Amino acid sequence: MNVRLSYVLRLLSALAVSSLSLKGVTAQEAIERRVNELLGQMTLEEKVGQLNLVSHGPPLRWEDISEGKAGAVLNFNNAEDVARAQALVRQSRLKIPLLYGLDVLHGFRTQFPLPLGEAAAFSPRISFLASEWAAKEASHVGVNWTFAPMADLSRDSRWGRIVEGFGEDPYLGSVLTAARVEGFRKGGLAAATKHFAGYGAPQGGRDYDTTYIPRAEMYDTYLPSFRAAAEAGSASFMAAFNALNGEPSTANAWLLTDVLRKQWGFDGFVTSDWVGIGELVNHGIAADGAEAARKAILAGVDMDMMGQLYIKHLPDEVRAGRVPESVIDESVRRVLRTKMRLGLFDQPAIDPKRTDANFPSREARQAAREVARETLVLLQNKGDLLPVKSGTRSIAVIGPLADAPQDQMGPHAARGHKEDSVTILQGIRQRAQSAGIAVNHAPACDLMCRSTEQLPAAIETAKKADLVIAVFGEPQELSGEAASRAYLDLSGRQKEILEALADTGKPIALAIIGGRPQILNSLAERIPSIVMAWYPGTEGGNAVADVLFGDVSPSGKLPLTWPRATGQLPMYYNRLPSSRPTLPNNRFTLQYIDEAIAPLYPFGWGLSYTQFAYSDGTIGQKQLDAGQMLDVSVNVTNKGSRAGQEVVQLYIRDPVASRSRPLRQLKAFEKISLNPGETKRVTLRVPVESLGFHLDDGTYLVEAGEIQVFVGGSSLAEQVGEVEIVKTISLPPEERRASAATSVAQ
After folding, report:
1. 469-513: per-residue pLDDT in tens?
2. Which of 81, 273, 403, 654 is catalytic?
3. Which one, out of 93, 268, 348, 430, has a CA that is 20 to 30 A from the CA of 181?
4. What number of helices (H) and strands (E) belong to the chain?
């Protein structure tokens, strides 16, 4: 089934079929007929108006809506403004409804963990739940389109926007991107998957910088999440800011036309990023706005976000013969098609009295707490310091981020209110009170830790406690867009403060708040327990307390590699083999002379309060041909005294191929729950068509030969055997291949 047909079938239930259907034609045909009829009534200026996306506030002229000069708006986040715009649409000649777009990345009013933290749950159910709730709240006030999910894969934590994506792995990213698209749709939002494509690999980790990615690598690593979004029904895509191999994405016909539309069959629309078309002048491929508009529309960008270049220049470009009107028609057709699929022509006007004051509801808070608990990653727990012991009488909570309601929401918090946040300090106090444990807080420094004037008081507070819970990391403004960092050490004087706390001899558990790994240096040796809490959102305090006190066993796994030093970046587990693999006493092998070559914590890593053992790994069929499945079964046993969840991960390696292949590749995973002493037999299934790689022209190959198979709790999984691909499978770019792994736990 191609992307176009599967998308239509998924949306069929949402369509007002009675108004779209004609006797003897399908819903898709009815939509196309209705689109063409409307298109035939439009003037050139009205057509171009549908391609104009403008933000609330300047330069928006409200009369542009009634005059048909806007096809979509963004940064509309309340029902009163949406209702006003809808009334103006009804005054327009053709009454074509607007798309109301907003960056709803990890919640609307109720804030969920940022996507990178969400990815640590290794759970499409959790991703679906978070995005569904975000969509339900946003759509309540009239938002119907979100500039999410961000499907950009990134292997470089210096890039601040890594927090908005799903980490470094294309398979994990694909599964979770699809789940988010589906969750948004279930909750009432159309998705604009961004940033297409390669934006997450800028040179030096510098946001907006250029990227150089071979086409085969694009197909294998950077495009799978976007393809998964298309197959899941993303209504639109957003072109990236960056230049890819010297060709800006906003004017890149290979990306926008050849790959997205011809190879994948996508028939929704593409929008630029903020003023992205005008920035083609900065890229040096357009002399002025007219040329930028011409190059973008011809490459396949249908909608101009905040540039106002289409509405200013395209009518003249068409009349001068530089842009065929048929190109304009096709872009408008994509926009109208999407609006009809979403049922916008048949939706009643919104009640302007609706507000977001209904949120966070009790149910939304429950969902946010559930999601946040699943995202926390226990990086280390020496001496089983955590969970908090029953004999503990007093806890010192040290650090400015322990009581930072705004910062724990993270960047891009939509309509999030800091007053809604349960801070880490509040969550710990509430849980400790039920256990009769005293809690005292000392910030030790301001948010940026510029000075240590408050350190003496913090040290005295720590000395009086049985346990120190330190809460440090990245304040909100150090993460997200335009927050690239050359140094990933804990900012300011945080390290000095944590060293001083360690000098007290008190047991310390460190909770790290932030949007990426932090360089810990000697702190990894001096602090027994470390939990990565990400930006945990509205219910972050309760979720962190649930894990610290052992009400819930941590189950998060790292969706990216945690480096020892910033100089190791970019760093990722699925790298290619070296001609000189690392040997401990041989200088002339893969290594650094001043740091270990291995990461501090590997991809897929995460501890629990219990222990899991893997045994009896077997492979179902040792010889595989086209259309068959790689079946791998393994027993997983909870060897401890606590219930817990484990993410069972399956990796493969193609050791001999026509191209050098990665040392490990994640191909399937399953999150399971086990009671103490319980064993489950888990079977992971991967289509043989997912075991190959791409050539530069997009051809997909599964080459005959041996494939090694590994199963375990991280990317350090042990090998369980190997299979043989009996003959080479070759698929052209336009042919959809099986991509979904499945699993069964018994």
Report:
1. 999 999 999 999 999 999 999 999 999 999 999 999 999 999 999
2. 273
3. 348
4. 22, 28
